[in-house]
Sequence to fold (334 residues):
Amino acid sequence: MKKFITLYRHIIEQERKYPEATGQLSDLLADIALACKIISLEVNRAGLIDILGFTGEENVHGEKVKKLDEFAHETLIRAMEVSGHLCAIASEESEDFIPVNEKYMGNRPMSKYVVHFDPLDGSSNIDANISIGTIFSIYKRISKSGPGTLEDCLQKGSNQVAAGYVIYGSSTILVYSTGEGVHGFTLDPSVGEFLLFYENIKIPKKSKTFSINEGNYHKWDEGLRKYIDSLKAENKSEGKPYSARYVGSLVADFHRNLLYGGIFIYPADTKNPNGKLRLLYEANPLAFICEQAGGRATDGRRRILDIEPENLHQRTPLFIGSEDDVREAESYLS
Fold:
């Protein structure tokens, strides 16, 4: 490690570039990091404290809720609603957004922000000890005062002021951007701090790796099947065949491709004609990070960050990663 820089120090240094900054965003990012440290601790000892398995309930998407899903959701809510910096919270695990109680907002010029999060992405892999993660996204509120509104939550991704994710794997890594590049930090458990490890991450413009669930091949449209077939065909002049790398946890697949290059695809198909990933909780924050790193993110036709959301749990196809690879995929779809 070349620099001994903690996450909070890095956030403050970014803030100093803007003399008009109030410090609220910095404090909010620190609150998120604290919540993720707590989640990381529970993930690492989950098998020892009976927190694996299902709760017996289903979430708004009809999916069985894991105990760790519920723990992560509640931990993030508790950490952020008392911060005084939020007017509303939206979680993938909640059917409606959560207006922040005015008692936490006070009379100060606070509550400027809205946060969206996927508390535990890839939770279907929890019991198999495969990497999972938390994804978050921050917007400035549109309403003027009081608890937040649905309008505050339904903003297009280009309005994000910050986004990031945390991976709970062999180590715990936090990656974030406030529009000034993408930076990664590793949690040092001996001191309890996220320390800078990746500065100004840039995704390679072209890769030799693709990530997609090929088990759905016969549900795809013809253009996508032709694109995937082209990646697997021998073509040395174009650097093909590509290698397939697919974990099944979006945040883990995306992180690998961010560092080494690659394209991740979760397309629409005959079973999910609108795609399956959530626009607000998954696609938007990762698209923001990808573009900051020099990559590209679309639904196959439109830039993800330009999509106007119509509801909190809107789904979308996602083509994200190295710019040249995403553009090539789009050419087959058109």
In short: The first helix runs from residue 7 to 15. The chain has a mean pLDDT of 89.
